[in-house]
From TrEMBL, chain B:
<feature type="transmembrane region" description="Helical">
    <location>
        <begin position="301"/>
        <end position="322"/>
    </location>
</feature>
<protein>
    <submittedName>
        <fullName>Peptide ABC transporter permease</fullName>
    </submittedName>
</protein>
<keyword id="KW-1133">Transmembrane helix</keyword>
<keyword id="KW-0812">Transmembrane</keyword>
<feature type="transmembrane region" description="Helical">
    <location>
        <begin position="177"/>
        <end position="203"/>
    </location>
</feature>
<keyword id="KW-0813">Transport</keyword>
<dbReference type="Pfam" id="PF12911">
    <property type="entry name" value="OppC_N"/>
</dbReference>
<feature type="transmembrane region" description="Helical">
    <location>
        <begin position="247"/>
        <end position="265"/>
    </location>
</feature>
<dbReference type="GO" id="GO:0055085">
    <property type="term" value="P:transmembrane transport"/>
</dbReference>
<keyword id="KW-0472">Membrane</keyword>
<feature type="domain" description="ABC transmembrane type-1">
    <location>
        <begin position="129"/>
        <end position="319"/>
    </location>
</feature>
<dbReference type="InterPro" id="IPR000515">
    <property type="entry name" value="MetI-like"/>
</dbReference>
<comment type="similarity">
    <text>Belongs to the binding-protein-dependent transport system permease family.</text>
</comment>
<dbReference type="Pfam" id="PF00528">
    <property type="entry name" value="BPD_transp_1"/>
</dbReference>
<keyword id="KW-1003">Cell membrane</keyword>
<dbReference type="GO" id="GO:0005886">
    <property type="term" value="C:plasma membrane"/>
</dbReference>
<dbReference type="InterPro" id="IPR035906">
    <property type="entry name" value="MetI-like_sf"/>
</dbReference>
């Protein structure tokens, strides 16, 4: 398992020093069924004010990458076995536990899919928001409460002043997700990682929450990493997309180009396999087979057993991330053919 | 230069229904939500991936490799054997007294020494296992059967029957065990183990019934029960085929741990004079008799007490190991 | 009065004049209601209200068609599914199958009907008994209905079913935890097919699956429909999947149907504001179409079904709401304005129905 390909990291922002740069990150889970290689050399960059979407199915390593970046990986069984996470020029992986904790929350924050289980059920939302200010900024209880109300108003919770004492279960799913966003914003972080932030919500509420997140990001010029499996959600807000498969980035591209002309057969397959809202269509294209078992990732290109283009070379040689255009890369030996086929 | 590719149009036409995933023995890590839920690809070094493995056989696979389980199981097998055939390792007679040797320490042929009446402590400790194991096994079986029957039915049928049973269980929970034992057992003069067994079952079943009720309520909510119901399955089938096999694991775990505590309870009651009575040979009785002489002849107390501790610990550790193996969160 | 007309004289959905019937109705749902009582007190229970999960739903399912039911969480679509397969008893209303009201059946008669109406569940992890082998799971329908297959044939039949749903028949002795989510869903489908039902009610059958696997299962369901002449009630929150698989679509909101019609009528010519908002909110995997798309952002959340708004249920979130909407329940019928021939001519429960294009067409 040696691959020395030093791919162009996903994401733009090469001009200025990026806010976050992940280099060749590797994570494995040591389970009793063997070692699951969850992340196998992931590199990407996010600049301030920019949105990078990490797209992948469950088990692709998209959430594990984020957890490693945030430093909240369950360890054991998860272990970071290589790579760097450069945040504002510092490698977070070399920091001590205490320093790491200071970065988390104040400089980078995370929003989770399930707001109900991420909030403490026995504390009022005001107390939970206020605690951030009291602990990190040394505010008095009263000041903190005032700031909490302001923040709740900012994320669009109606009657914030009256509801600041309410408990999480008294809010609807969409409102809880807004509170999560408020908590993430509380200390004005430079980077927000949102892991499937709207997956648990209904479509009409989904749109509201996504809009709020995009608006706040612009307003505060934060970097945003949006982790999702939903090709639709990504299309709305991302600048750049990184598609992950079996713990690797297989394609990165600016959002418009990825949808117009994917350069990796997996991306293309995903795009073709989702039903369309605007026409009924014939039989759906289905990518054959199943995602690989992470304890036994196929040699060569991990997608080769499911790929309609697979040739001998795909089984023997792992494709590096080829530069396939400005700001674009694809880990496919036949990226040219894929791109041509798509046009 | 790679060989020419087929035209891209054929891409969408391939693999219509995706029969592809049927052929390979793919046990994908991919679709599981978290790595903890992953049904991994066969145990490393074990049988080849894809062989039928029930959850029980998986659990057994784990248990065999767990030193805590192996050790406690060996101790328990040994205890059961000497409870049935104490002659295997003790050739003497537990009742034979030689007052001349009262309270004497170890000597050749009598490794544990003698008690106040000059009986061989080693032989008495070995013969004492029978009472403890009998009480433990019988009381646990009784409490588990009664508790899981009542609790399971309450969980399954719910409504007023559930409410009534829970209140009755609460009443039994409220009885102080030792006080209840002293009052209840002191009026009984039988020298067999059965009154003690009966008393422990009476106080032990509510605990099991709560666990069984909870397990049945959890199992009942699963979609596979709904699915069977939608097929037209009756209550009998639902209970026997779908709910019981999925609810039995926590009951087994709690019952195993309870077995250890019941043995300790029997010894406590015997120590207080309310449990087993001479001439039954029991660790509790011997500890009680020895406690007065602890300064002069501590060996009389330490050997039976040590045997009791090891026995209780073995059952509790076994229960812990079984729980770990059956814990669905690890699966 | 047509057989399905409401007591108040408004025509029901049967009177749907938009289209000729695709086939004979196999299932007729009339004014179906399910209220869950809310009680207070332990010993002496007092009813203090009711959760109106389903509150007056009528539709037909025709032979060989797929009826899609879409709605957000809490709209009552899962309760509706459970009533159709007899897992919940309706508070009132009828479910007519082959001329008899199955809502009133019990015992042997209900069991006989169940053979013909089967269900596919959402969660492939909880819908298969982990202690049973795949063969036992798929073969269980034959044990419950021994008349469906003689004992000697059962193993063969189970293997055939595995083959039909695209699994290796040799997997018959394996346990569910040895399969992935998509494969488990195929096992669930095979169980649903075992008794050769006429109707399959699928409650979010693909929403728990990954995108690449979702397409496989959707295709499988479509292929099986042709092969076994099945009628589907396909319940989902994903509007794209519903459009793909459905012949007709019913949009549900807070226990009632808001709009019904063919997939084209609903998606290209929606006349109910809720349908329009729902369609406009769906994220489309196409950044260019996105930019030219009009979006209707609804404010607020779905009200509680325990205390639904008077009149039109959607009025609290509707930008068109008038005082009339709070007073009069809009009937589900073809609105006045669209009585002439045209794609907008389909039932819509809105006083102020008007056509609006929200899905970017080609």
């Amino acid at each position: 398992m040696t691959d020395t390909d030093e791919p162009a990291p996903a994401g733009t922002g090469q001009e200025a020093a990026p806010l976050l740069e992940v280099r060749d990150l590797r994570v494995e889970f040591r389970t009793r069924d063997g070692i699951a290689k969850a992340v196998n050399g992931v590199s990407y960059r996010v600049a301030a004010g920019q949105t990078l979407a990490v797209l992948g199915e469950s088990g692709s390593g998209k959430s594990v990458t984020a957890q490693a970046v945030m430093g909240i990986l369950d360890s054991p069984p998860g272990f970071v076995t290589g790579g760097e996470v450069l945040f504002q020029g510092r490698d977070l992986l070399t920091l001590g536990r205490e320093e790491r904790r200071k970065v988390r929350g104040a400089k980078m924050a995370m929003i989770f899919q399930d707001a109900l289980s991420s909030l403490n059920p026995v504390l009022s939302v005001g107390a939970q928001l206020g605690e951030m200010f009291q602990v990190h900024e040394g505010m008095s209880r009263k000041e903190a409460r005032g700031r909490s109300v302001e923040l709740m108003e900012r994320v669009g919770i109606p009657a914030a002043r009256a509801r600041v004492g309410d408990y999480p279960h008294q809010f609807s799913g969409g409102m809880r997700q807004r509170i999560m966003i408020a908590m993430a914003l509380a200390l004005a972080p430079d980077l927000i990682i949102a892991d499937e932030p709207t997956t648990a919500l209904d479509v009409t509420v989904q749109a509201q929450v996504m809009d709020l997140l995009a608006e706040l990001q612009r307003e505060y010029r934060m970097g945003l990493i949006l982790i999702t499996h939903d090709l639709g959600v990504v299309a709305d807000v991302a600048d750049t997309i990184a598609v992950m498969y079996a713990g690797r980035i297989v394609e990165t591209a600016p959002v418009h180009q990825l949808y117009k002309a994917p350069a990796h057969p997996y991306t293309r397959g995903l795009l073709e396999s989702i039903p369309r809202l605007d026409h009924k269509g014939q039989e759906l294209y289905a990518i054959k087979g199943l995602p690989p078992n992470l304890t036994a990732i196929p040699p060569g290109c991990p997608f080769n057993p499911r790929c309609p283009l697979a040739r001998d070379i795909c089984v023997t040689d792992r494709p590096p991330l080829y530069d396939v255009g400005p700001g674009r890369a694809s880990a496919c030996h036949f990226w040219k053919e894929t791109l041509d086929g798509a046009r | 230069m790679p060989e020419p590719l087929e035209p891209y149009e054929s891409y969408a036409a391939r693999e219509a229904i995706g029969h592809g995933d049927g052929g390979s023995a793919a046990l994908a890590i991919g679709e599981a939500e978290s790595l903890e839920r992953v049904p991994g690809a066969g145990p490393p070094g074990g049988e080849p991936a894809g062989k039928p493995r029930s959850l029980w056989s998986d659990a057994w696979h784990d248990l065999r490799r767990n030193p805590v389980f192996v050790l406690s199981a060996l101790v328990i097998v040994f205890l059961v054997l000497i409870a049935i055939w104490p002659q295997l390792i003790a050739s003497g007679n537990p009742y034979r007294a030689d007052l001349a040797k009262a309270q004497q320490g170890a000597e050749p042929g009598h490794p544990f020494g003698f008690d106040t009446q000059g009986r061989d402590v080693y032989t008495r400790v070995v013969y004492g296992a029978r009472a403890s194991i009998t009480v433990g096994v019988c009381a646990t079986t009784g409490a588990a059967l009664l508790g899981s029957l009542l609790g399971g039915l309450a969980g399954f049928f719910g409504s007023w029957w559930d409410g009534l049973l829970s209140r009755i269980a609460d009443i039994f929970f409220g009885i102080p065990v030792i006080l209840g034992g002293l009052v209840f057992l002191s009026v009984i003069t039988s020298s067999t183990v059965w009154p003690v067994v009966g008393f422990i079952v009476l106080l032990g079943w509510p605990q099991i019934s709560r666990i069984a009720r909870g397990a049945v309520v959890t199992a009942k909510q699963n979609d596979y029960v709904q699915a069977a119901r939608a097929l037209g399955a009756g209550n009998g089938r639902l209970l026997l085929r779908h709910i019981t096999p999925n609810a039995v694991a926590p009951v087994i775990v709690v019952a195993t741990i309870a077995l250890g505590t019941y043995i300790a309870l029997e010894a406590t009651l015997s120590y207080l004079g309310a449990g087993l009575k001479p001439p039954t040979v029991s660790w509790g009785i011997d500890i009680s008799a020895a406690s007065t002489y602890i300064r002069n002849a501590p060996h009389m107390l330490l050997w039976p007490a040590g045997a009791l501790s090891i026995t209780v610990l073995a059952f509790i550790m076994l229960g812990d190991a079984v729980r770990d193996a059956l814990d669905p969160k690890l699966r | 009065m047509a057989p399905d007309d409401r007591p108040d004289g408004t025509p029901g959905v049967l009177a749907d004049p938009g289209r000729p019937a695709l086939g004979e109705p196999v299932l007729e749902i009339r004014d179906l209601v399910k209220h869950y009582p809310l009680t207070r007190g332990v010993l002496f229970k007092k009813q203090i209200g009711a959760v109106k999960a389903v509150d007056g739903v009528s539709f037909d399912l025709r032979k060989g068609e797929t009826l899609g039911i879409v709605g957000e969480s809490g709209c009552g679509k899962s309760t509706l599914a459970k009533m159709l397969v007899g897992l919940e008893r309706p508070t009132s209303g009828q479910i007519r199958y082959q001329g008899q009201d199955i809502a009133t059946l019990s015992g042997r008669a209900l069991k006989a009907v169940r053979r013909n109406i089967q269900m596919v569940f959402q969660d492939p992890y909880t819908s298969l008994n982990p202690r049973m082998t795949v063969g036992d799971i798929i073969g269980e329908p034959y044990e419950i209905h021994p008349e469906a297959a003689p004992k000697g044939d059962r193993r063969k039949k189970v293997q055939d079913l595995l083959d039909v749903v695209g699994l290796n028949p040799e997997y018959i002795n394996r346990y569910p935890h040895q399969f992935s989510g998509g494969q488990r869903q195929r096992i669930g489908i095979a169980r649903g097919l075992a008794l050769r039902p006429e109707i399959i009610v699928a409650d979010e059958p693909v929403s728990a699956l990954d995108v690449s696997v979702q397409a496989q299962v959707v295709n499988l369901l479509e292929a099986l429909q042709d092969e076994f002449d099945l009628s589907y009630v396909f319940i989902a929150h994903d509007l794209s999947v519903v459009r793909h698989i459905s012949d007709r679509v019913a949009v549900m909101y807070l226990g009632r149907l808001a709009e019904t019609g063919t997939d084209e009528q609903i998606y290209e010519h929606p006349t109910h504001p809720y349908t329009q908002a729902l369609l406009s909110a769906v994220p489309v995997p196409d950044p260019e179409a996105r930019e030219h798309r009009e979006r209707i952002l609804l404010t607020g959340d779905v009200p509680s079904p325990a205390d639904p708004p008077s009149g039109c249920r959607f009025r609290t979130r509707c930008w068109k709401a008038q005082p009339l909407c709070a007073e009069v329940v809009p009937p589900l019928e073809v609105p006045e304005a669209f009585r002439e021939e045209g794609p907008a001519r389909h039932p819509s429960a809105c006083h102020f129905a008007e056509e609006r294009h929200v899905v970017p067409g080609e």
